[in-house]
Amino acid sequence: KRFVTQSRKLLKARHEDARKTIIPMGSTISGQQKQQHRFHHPDPFNPKTTMGWNAALKEAEIPLTKFNQETEEGLRLGLPGASSIDDKTIPTFSRGELPHFAGINTFLKAPYIEDAKAVGAYDCAVVGVPFDGGCTYRAGTRFGPQGIRRISALYTPYNYEKGIDLREQMVNHNGIGGWQVPRPAVPNMIERETNIFTMDDIEKMGIDKVAEMALERAWDGCDAVYMSYDIDSIEAAFVPGTGWPEPGGLLPREALKLVGLIAKEGLCGMEVVEVSPPYDHADITSLMALRIIVDALGSMVSHGTLKKCMNIFDKEFVPI
Questions:
Q1: pLDDT value at position 175?
Q2: What is the pLDDT of residue 271?
Q3: What is the pLDDT of residue 229?
Q4: What is the pTM of this model?
Q5: Which of 107, 171, 206, 235 might form a disulfide with 249, Cβ 3.0–4.6 angstroms?
Q6: What's the chain's Rg over C-alpha atoms?
């Protein structure tokens, strides 16, 4: 406690010194040189006002129920470790989320549901659709689901910035295209009065405004919204593993913010398409696709909209 107090006093002293910093401006007022004060921290200085600090406080509000259940299940199925191992939560045979490099690669190491009729017991189902039929030039998207599942082992269900844990705040979880815009499709887009935004539009209006306009059109007269995200909308340098790399696209931070804004209103489903691992040996494209999915889920969980469209699914299916 004494160390923390001394550290804060030191930071405060540095802050006061920074306020006194003088920069010559080259002109004089009443015989004195004009001065400019530089402020290195917000005033008054308080390190606990940052979003990062608030995110840390949220962690204590998240239960550990599912994590503890997973640990117990891992010991039961994978057998307890040797008596010489101090950490008694580690099974002999890897089960569950950890370690990241071992085990079966389901999406985020979530339980694998083999019986498709059982998905009704869960809040979300993640489905891989290995399909290349729509590719006109660079095939390989059939390996997209596999690539996303593989790189998802790098992640955990916990998102520090949002202060959520998908494992604890969802009833578990278990993706699916896009299309190019050839010239013949343009008249059809105009006839439908589709919302169309170029990168120039986004730079001019900003991500928040574009998301607001997109949501206004999407929810107009609709019971539910489905989001389809083409990975090639992102700058090609960040997602080389796609059939149609697009230089000058969205930056990853812009893409994630856009996804979060759209998803927080609630989605009945979503898909991330055009991921083609054979063109990206480092799997950074698959990693970006994974981040889009978990950010969308995280946004809905943190805003309480994950089950917003559940009434749609509960309706009896009537073939047309």
A1: 25
A2: 92
A3: 93
A4: 0.64
A5: 235
A6: 25
Look up residue 141 and give its amino acid. T
Name every residue whose Cβ is closer than 8 Å to that of residue 127 and which is 6 or more positions away in sequence: 174, 175, 176
Burial letters 176-192, b for 16+ CB under 10 A, else e: eebeeeeeeeeeeeeee
Beta carbons within 8 Å of 1's beta carbon, 6+ residues apart: none
Exposure class string for 240-260: b at 16+ Cβ within 10 A, else e: ebbbbbbeebbebebbbbbbb
The phi and psi torsions of 70 (rounded to 5 degrees) equal -65, -40
Would you give the distance in Å from CA 204 to the centre of its chain? 24
CB count within 10 Å of CB 85 equals: 11
CB 226 within 8 A of CB 213: no
Cβ atoms 297, 256 nearer than 8 A: no
- Asked if residue 139 lies in contact with residue 275, where contact means CB atoms within 8 angstroms, the answer is no
Block mean pLDDT (10 aa), the chain, length 320: 50 53 48 55 63 76 85 88 86 81 82 81 83 79 84 80 76 34 67 80 91 88 88 92 85 95 92 90 92 93 88 72
- Secondary structure letter of residue 208 according to DSSP: H
Q: Provide the 8-state DSSP code for 275.
A: B
Residue 214 contacts residue 162 (beta carbons within 8 Å)? no
Residue type at position 11 = L
How far is residue 219's CA from residue 35's CA, in Å, rounded to a whole number?
Answer: 54
Phi, psi dihedrals of residue 188, rounded to the nearest 5° = -65, -40
Judge whether 76 and 54 are in contact, CB under 8 Å. Answer: no
pLDDT score of 2 = 47
- Taking CA atoms, 100 is separated from 72, 94, 222, 278, 304, in Å, by 18, 10, 41, 23, 29
For the four alpha carbons of 176, 180, 181 and 183, in that order, the dihedral sign comes to negative
Q: Could you tell me the CA-to-CA distances from 313 to 146, 223, 309 in Å, in that order?
A: 27, 11, 7
